[in-house]
Amino acid sequence: MATNTNVLVIGSGPTGLGAAARLHQLERKFGSNLPPYLLVDAAPEAGGLACTDVTAEGFLFDLGGHVIFSHFDFFDGLIDKACGTDTWNTHQRVSYVWMKNRWIPYPFQNNISCLDVDDQVKCLTGLVEAKTLTSTATSKPANFAEWIDRVMGPGINDLFMRPYNFKVWAYPTSEMQCSWLGERVATADVTKAITNVLNNTVAGGWGPNAVFRFPKEGGTGGIWKNVASKCVPQDRQRYNSKVVGIDVKGKKVEFSDGSTCSYTSLLSTMPLDVTLRMVGASLGEPSLSQCNTWASALRYSSTHVIGLGIRGVNPHDTKCWLYYPEDDCPFYRCTVFSHYAEGNCPPPDAVLPSLRRADPSLPFDSSPLPGPYWSLMLEVSESSSHKPVDSKTILEETIRGCISTTLLPPDAEIVSTYHRRIEHGYPTPHVNRDGVLEGALPFLKSHDIWSRGRFGSWKYEVANQDHSTMLGVEAVDNILFGAREFTLNYCSLVNERGKKYTDMKYD
Length: 507
Ligand SMILES: Cc1cc2nc3c(=O)[nH]c(=O)nc-3n(C[C@H](O)[C@H](O)[C@H](O)COP(=O)(O)OP(=O)(O)OC[C@H]3O[C@@H](n4cnc5c(N)ncnc54)[C@H](O)[C@@H]3O)c2cc1C
Fold this sequence. Notes:
alpha/beta, FAD/NAD(P)-binding domain, eight-stranded mixed sheet, five-stranded parallel sheet, 15 helices, binds flavin-adenine dinucleotide
């Protein structure tokens, strides 16, 4: 079957849905003067990486720790329109780093006062060294490792920054660039650090997500299902439609069932490396070699998301998410997912059998019993070059890690387990990244292909749900009106602390 449209959007994650919602908003304004559009996705339903899975026992798990915080009025208006305004829980972030068998409040670099005296000395002398290094430096830091040395010094680097960032990114900090940092990494202030240590005070509240909201029902994925059903007409969406090729000169995409769709402009939210290989294959040499070189230079890590449903009462009070830099567990982050919403667990009167105790050597009774229930969600990163992970053993290793870090007592009754591996999890801000993006994105655009989104434009600094939505919205305005794409091109302005962009509304 052959169809055609004007703006073809590939991918129904936040970027594609942002684009489609913007197109529908403009359609309501301009009626039939707006060119036709279509949203297609390989998956059976909307959400992309921001979807939520449900286990057979009724526990919800997002694909990693997703919380909503926004830099844009448009984004707030869109999700409020889709979900309503009274369907959210608002949480104060309660976040810690687990280190040397104790909790250090997040961000670590502002809470050196909570360390042993030996470690305090290492961190404070390191901060002073860093200050000296920065004041004599004649050039910008060449990579993330140098940035950490100059901003925080060797003490904080050795204890926290290097091991933690390796666990998150699955690449050494020396291979990562530092222009992405902005509001994503808290810097350290020597005076404040020394004052906090001397006064024995704790500093919290840093960063854009100190307060965040989360849906009462349906997890993060519920938001995007609502956007797809309430803000984009159903006849503009096609699921189970996997794009397997792009005929760049003929301006049509081919789907896995052999059907095609012609377009005037293509907005792709597929991973950029995938799009480049399709485009190269379609154009042939010399573009083929160029596209393959760009695709191979991009780096990403895969993410394993492990979920545990547990019988009993959550023993972790109001803790939201927790960081793990040490090697006593495979995960870098744990989210107490049941704390975000009651709807993330089965109701207390649901009757479920135990599957096991956390320590598998302990006996357990498998007769079905009622709750209450709580849950943990853990994330493990993987890269083929630096940090391989065995998919067959990672669930067991994670549960063992939960015991050794006191997240679970050995006799915890596990009633549900979940494991999903995401091939494209984190777009690595590799030292080569910007060179690739500066060549590849304009090249694709010269062929009427806008590659945008978390992996579409590969910029981690603008890869959260609010950013992704706006990448889609602004790409549409660029396609239709030639408007500038602010989020893509001015990442650090977008992320300026405390600022919200109010010039565009969703209504
Ligand atoms: C571990 C983790 C933690 C995160 N934490 C947060 C957070 O706390 N806060 C926050 O705001 N954001 C968070 N995010 C980011 C959030 O998930 C992304 O912003 C968002 O999902 C990216 O949207 P996207 O539309 O660009 O891409 P995706 O969500 O990846 O969507 C791309 C879509 O394209 C489709 N597709 C791919 N290939 C094809 C093909 N060949 N044919 C057809 N369709 C195709 C896919 O099926 C998918 O639906 C997190 C992400 C991860 C992985």
